[in-house]
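## retry 2 of 3
previous attempt timed out at serialization; input unchanged, resubmitting
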Amino acid sequence: MDPRPRVVSPDDWRRQNQEQVLLAAQLRRGPWRQYSPEWDHDHCEFCTAKFSAREGDLKSGYSTLDDYFWICETCFEDFREEFGFVVRSAAD
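## retry succeeded, writing output
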């Protein structure tokens, strides 16, 4: 793995003002968890990749501590430095 931070272009198509809710967000890495009984899936807040229990969908990634917002591995790596994500362990 390249130790240098990734630099994402200012006009990257995945940018949609996520700073409002994800700047310095506390996240945990783990399996996708259903936020509520009414929701059967979630989407990556950057690229819209789908998380669910269905075949072919993402099964794990990074979520806010309340499991409301999800970020796929690729987008986490791409934006982690810029957004200053703080990753918490299960013990935190």
